[in-house]
Specification:
This protein has 90 residues and is of the alpha+beta class. The protein is built from 3 helices and 3 strands; from the N terminus they run E-H-H-E-E-H.
Length: 90
């Protein structure tokens, strides 16, 4: 979609407010998923019109993505234990 702020200036390369369909493409999910995020308040929106005329600010989408990123440490490497020959398992 290419809609982002140019970091060197305040110029945008596309619209700032996106429709639900555009937001879904931006996030790589379904429109139903975007509506669910709007209804739960996880994603901010601007109401337009009387019927589900939602517009989502591109900056809110980007901060939503940043807030959802997870950093997890790699699992520790398991070192095999040496077999103890003097212990018999029955």
């Amino acid at each position: 979609m290419g809609t982002r702020f140019n970091e060197d200036s305040d110029e945008r390369t596309g619209p700032r407010l996106l429709s639900v369909a555009q937001a879904a493409r931006f996030l790589g999910c379904s429109e139903a998923n975007v509506y669910a995020l709007l209804e739960t308040g996880e994603l901010a929106y601007v109401p337009i019109g009387r019927r589900k005329g939602y517009r989502i600010d591109i900056l809110d989408l980007e901060s939503f993505i940043e807030g959802r990123k997870k950093k997890q440490a790699a699992a520790p490497v398991k070192v095999p234990r040496p077999r103890l020959k003097h212990i018999r398992l029955s």
